Amino acid sequence: MQYVPHMSQPLKAARTPRTNRTNSSGAGGNGTRRATAQRLAMRRKLASAAMELFATQGYEATTVDEIAARAGVARRTFFRHFRSKEEAIFPDHDDTLVRAADVLDAAPPHEHPLDTVCRGIKEVMRMYAASPAVSVERYHLTREVPALREREIASVARYERLFTRYLLGHFDEGAHHDGDDDPLLAEVAASAVVTAHNHVLRRWLRAGGVGDVEAQLDHAFDIVRQAFGTGIGAGRPLPGRPAATVSAKSGEEDVVVMVARTDAPLDEVMRTIERALKR
Fold this sequence. Notes:
single chain; 279 residues; mainly alpha; two-stranded antiparallel sheet; 2 strands; 60% helix; 5% strand
């Protein structure tokens, strides 16, 4: 399902603050990528050790020292990567949050921000889908251990804040006035995208991590677009996207006036015309 949302205010570049970002070109970039890969490998090793111990002897009975010993590293190495044993069960969230933010930062100017958010959260789903067996085991653990479930909820909240800030960043503060529901829709839409993702993810995990989870996610996003995509900025032009209206009648026929930016993708223009003619 396609749609043509509109906004009256110029889009602002919604940038998420970044820290410790290093140019990835050249020898220095290779070193940075290697260090990042090594860091993530160690985090996953510690997480695997933690999950094994949680599953065999229970969460409460497992200590940080035991996790470090199972992973073959010192206690101080554990704390260089995680602040607590419950944090160790989610080794990839920090990096995935950065990748999701990168998707938002690199969004093409013609793309509707809700589409961008949907693409961003796919990075989260891909993180889980990369290791289905581990993700399923972690899902069962988080259902059984309240502390792990709370940690998971906190991780989800970080994504929701990221996407909400991005959507709200496309509305000029001066445009927030009585009767303007766009900021409300932006927040609700961000929550809906996260909720749709979590619903599909839980269903996939309960099924043992089997099935085309991205296709299921795309279907869920279509539902979110139907509910919110046409509501944000309805009736107002959105830079970078075509707009079409039935403006007048000439004799027995409707006259359709089409207005589009020169950088609007041709397929978007054609779909917009098609929808307008079907009204």
